[in-house]
Amino acid sequence: MALLGIKNKVLLKLQASSLIENLVASVLIIVVFMIASFSLNNIFGNYIQSDEQELQQRFSELSYLFINEKISIGYSEDYNTDIISIEKAKGKPFVFYRRNGKILKSKEINYNDY
């Protein structure tokens, strides 16, 4: 009997939370996870963009060298275990970026850019 009385006193002291409190807590949890998700997305996005920017920089350098006749059609180099080459396609010079023989990116060399 004494055990039953203690149990009732403990249950009386605990109050149920209201629906509004639950909604506010849920919204706070969602906001925290959204902020974490956006932060991770921003970090990985910047990492991928920096890789792309480095490749674009190399394309510009090779285009400049080609236009100033320092390199010619048929030029090829290793770039991070991939291949960058200058070739003629459709009668125009292009810079190609290949991985395992598959073209991942290409850019036409435009004489008006330099």
How are helices and strands ordered from N to C?
HHEEEE
- Termini distance? 94 Å
Low-confidence stretches: none
> How many helix segments?
2
Number of strands: 4
Strand order within the widest beta sheet: 1-2-3-4
- Shape, per Cα inertia axes: rod-shaped
Q: How much is the average pLDDT?
A: 84
Query: Helix/strand/pairing class, anyone?
Result: alpha+beta
Sheet of most strands: 4 strands, antiparallel
Residue share in helices?
40-55%
What does this structure look like?
This protein is of the alpha+beta class. The protein has one domain (20-113). Helix content is 54%, strand content 24%. A hairpin with a 2-residue loop joins strand 3 (92-99) and strand 4. The termini are far apart. The relative contact order is 0.09.
Write the layout of secondary structure elements.
Elements: H1 2-13, H2 19-67, E1 76-79, E2 82-89, E3 92-99, E4 102-108
Antiparallel strand pairs: 1-2, 2-3, 3-4
Give the tags.
single chain, 114 residues, alpha+beta, 4-stranded antiparallel β-sheet, 24% strand, rod-shaped
How would you summarize what this structure contains?
Keywords: Membrane, Transmembrane, Transmembrane helix. The chain has 114 residues and is an alpha+beta fold.
